């Protein structure tokens, strides 16, 4: 079956559909009929509009939602800086000046679990490009947490959309729009500004985050593929309305704002949305539902055929960010070197491994919870062991990636690395080149020799 078998059973209900107009109410009649902002919304609720794009964005790009809540989100005390020694998402005023852009291929050992911190304080900026203050670029994070967030805390990022790739554990996420349960081999996207709280029902968690500072993720165009395949819109799951009726407890709202952490107090739950409707909301997707496309004659197609979500730039066919996966699949090409070929790319490629073994890196250095970065025009490809095996193997139909799921954050931007990513994490593999490509030897033979 084209779904993942999860160890942790689902506990919530969802609506289905990517970029679909959804409406949901936890109390029957809480949604106004036709009008968005009546003088007296049902049940004494407040109407609040959440805008993910400008009001005048083209209709096909416009993302807005109307929320009907017990108290509006504005009802809080002023935000104050709340710096933390473990919150390393760039506390400097100009974080984009702190990246180190280097041409070397980089690979990291698995990042450690940290049972001392919660979701917010586990976020470590590894790499990125651009500047959230002008809504341009991306940030790449590692998270590793061992504690649930405080029961009366909520977090949001004003900097961009969070695409969360869970590698280990389970995320139970309460959002303003309802609840999400996220397990390994599922991803979730929490758009800019949406408040949420994460608890850890199965213990420590670890994974990766791609923060998109500009635009929003969408499904890639299919072109001659047709109307279906890759990630199908019907397989994305969206929360149904659920709310907390708490107007007497002190809550803290944590905001990531230009890479800094701020906190504000309020006397009511931020998760008090009784009903909502619109196009701007969090969602999740089971990577096991991806419908893989590949060659059935010869040659290895470009990895763009594995794109789940994309965030286009202003230049057609070029993405600020692509989320690409390498799922289990059949290879049947004739007279073809089947792993990805050696190449240099104008795009930057940050890869991670959720579980299993990636079929282009068989030597063992690319491990679950680890990562690699092949920046703009940095040459890379199969390691020597993989090349040797793929060059001599009998070319029968073969199943690859069984029990595995690798992914890639790809960007047209030159990606810089933070001091934490290069030094403080102590996970960079110094022998990456020596293990992967230095062992390759010349195979050229002149005709007649």
Oligomer: single chain
- Alpha-carbon distance between the termini? 53 Å
Q: What count of helical segments does DSSP give? A: 4
Number of domains: 2
| CATH-defined superfamily of the largest domain | Jelly Rolls
How would you sum up the major sheet? 9 strands, antiparallel
Number of strands: 28
Note poorly predicted spans: none
> What is the strand content?
25-35%
**The CATH class of the largest domain:** Mainly Beta
Gyration radius over CA: 23 Å
Tell me, briefly, the overall form.
globular
**Helicity, in percent?**
under 10%
* Major sheet: arrangement of strands: 1-16-20-13-10-15-8-7-28
Protein name: homogentisate 1,2-dioxygenase
Binding site for homogentisate: 358, 380
Enzyme class: oxidoreductase
Binding site for Fe cation: 343, 349, 380
Structure, explained:
The longest helix is centred in the C-terminal third of the chain and has 9 residues, at 384-392. The N and C termini lie far apart (53 Å). The protein is 5% helix and 34% strand. The chain has helices at residues 119-122, 384-392, 419-424, 432-436; strands at 14-16, 22-25, 46-51, 64-69, 80-81, 106-108, 124-131, 136-145, 153-157, 161-168, 171-175, 178-182, 186-190, 196-199, 205-212, 236-239, 251-257, 260-266, 273-278, 283-286, 307-312, 319-326, 329-331, 348-355, 371-374, 398-400, 405-411, 416-417. The strands form six sheets. It has a nine-stranded antiparallel beta sheet with strand order 1-16-20-13-10-15-8-7-28. The chain is mainly β and 449 residues long. A hairpin with a 2-residue loop joins strand 11 (171-175) and strand 12. Residues 289-442 form the Homogentisate 1,2-dioxygenase C-terminal domain. Fe cation binds at residues 343, 349, 380. Its cofactor is Fe cation.
